[in-house]
Write a structure and sequence with these properties.
alpha+beta; four-stranded mixed sheet
Length: 88
Amino acid sequence: MAGLGAKLWVAGEEVTAANLNGYVQDQVIMKFSNEAARTAAFGGAGEPTLSEGMFSYLADIDQLQYYDGSAWKQASGGADILQVQVFS
């Protein structure tokens, strides 16, 4: 599921699984020990699917990457999130 954008939560509002996944989980930077761990986390039964715009951090190579809809690509700036630039 792709990220759903921003949501203003209201006190007492029920948080559904769809809201948690779409507004929170799918819009964070995921951290994995390596590429193999990241690959294993997606596409299996009960696992999320990849969607364009997802970011992940690979600890073994200290690299921030984004998913462009067909492949993972390195985001410039390395692990410094304040320096991230995405190039097409």
